[in-house]
Amino acid sequence: MANSDFIKTKFENFDQHFYRQLEEYAIFTTVDAKQELIAEGEKVKFIPLLIKGSVKVYGLNDGKELVYYYITPGESCIMTFSTIFTDKISRIYAISEEKSDVMLLPVPQFLNWLQVYPQLNQIFFMEYDSRYRFMMETINKIVFQKLDHRVLEFLQERIRRTGTDVVKVSHKKIADELGTAREVVSRILKKFEKEGLIIQSPSGIGICEKR
Prior knowledge:
The structure is a single chain. By secondary structure, this protein is of the alpha+beta class. It contains eight helices and ten strands. The radius of gyration is 19 Å and the shape is elongated.
């Protein structure tokens, strides 16, 4: 999708002056897979909007990774957005999962747009609400849902997000994202395989269709 098309799709019903300003001030860039976009403690200079690809947003606690959410095309990092009203210091890490196209909105200009175009607030607060609900659902799953169900849902979500039939992910990565041990995930996947729920191969993990 061309940059101008992305702008008009993301920001519907804005005037031509706003579109021209976006094209003037926004920075369009492509990042390779596994490239860090921002780290905790860094000054937030831009609000990112993902055009294509996938970005993981996470925190670190005693060296352990805690995934907050993934950014998909058309979405922004709402935790980055929230910092521009306080100290403008990042509290998260963000890394591209695959080669991704990103639109970066400079913070000073973005703050001006928020005053001139009140509808811009609604776009980002709707995304904030979506992230909040997602994180509440995640907490409920951690507290009330068995780990084997969470592992299966992780695989299903990964397949949905990537649009592939097979997910290329290590047992350790699954364990890290779900806050458990690799050995536990390996046992669960082995059980799923015996039950005919999944297939494991060198190309990745696939979920079997229900018969």
